[in-house]
Amino acid sequence: MARGCLCCLKYTMFVFNLIFWLCGCGLLGVGIWLSVSQGSFATFSPSFPSLSAANMVIAIGAIVMVTGFLGCLGAIKENKCLLLSCSFGGLAEILVLSRLFVIVSENAKQDLKDGLALYNADNNIGLRNAWNIIQAEWKCCGVTGYTDWHEALKEKVVPDRCCQEHYQECGRNSTNMFWTRGCYEKVEEWLEDNKHLLGTIGMCILVVQLLGMAFSMTLFHQIHRSGKKYDA
């Protein structure tokens, strides 16, 4: 009976972590695609130049892949050391993502303003494209308003995508109508409108992580009780 429960738990753990590993593969693939096709798709923050969308997705995908692999191997081999590693890996993911969120959100507004100065830099095509897309799609300009560009670019011009009626070099014509709302305000508004959806997604991810850790520790104790004392 105990052996049957152990087998059931083992294969449940294996399937769970296999799905987790496949999700990590998908994230890693998306991150690599972004890095190759979008030119590192821009980091908006000069304080964290490696914190681009592509690098973040690659890092998260790699952590999820490793954790899932450890869980699969630990379950199928009934290896206590690997199961513990999988459990601690899940905890590390939660802590790293929480800390990353705190770091990014603490100084986001000022950091974004500082990043505007890099808009015309030759080695920041990704950042320029990202700002152009965001300002065109969200009908906003700058971080808190179009005057942010005046301070960043040291002249009274804005990117063409800030113009309500877009045409080439329209940003240099001070008589044009520019989008008055800043993109930071638009992002806050979007987050407020979608807070329930985002909260649900966040809770689902947290539950999945906690379930993975619970499966790992339960299987660990079952193996220990069944008399498999080896750790490698």
Automatic annotation (TrEMBL):
Look up and give the membrane topology term.
Multi-pass membrane protein
Describe the family membership recorded for this protein in Swiss-Prot or TrEMBL.
Answer: Belongs to the tetraspanin (TM4SF) family.
* Domain of life assignment: Eukaryota
What are the record keywords, sorted? Answer: Disulfide bond, Glycoprotein, Membrane, Transmembrane, Transmembrane helix
Annotated transmembrane regions: 12-36, 56-76, 83-104, 197-220
Which GO terms of the cellular component aspect does the record hold?
plasma membrane
Name-wise, this protein is Tetraspanin
What does the UniProt entry say about where the protein is found? Membrane
The disulfides recorded in the entry are 140-170
Query: Which Pfam family, any one, appears in the UniProt record?
Result: Tetraspanin
Q: List the InterPro entries hit by this protein, alphabetically.
A: Tetraspanin/Peripherin, Tetraspanin_animals, Tetraspanin_CS, Tetraspanin_EC2_sf
Indicate where this protein is primarily found.
membrane
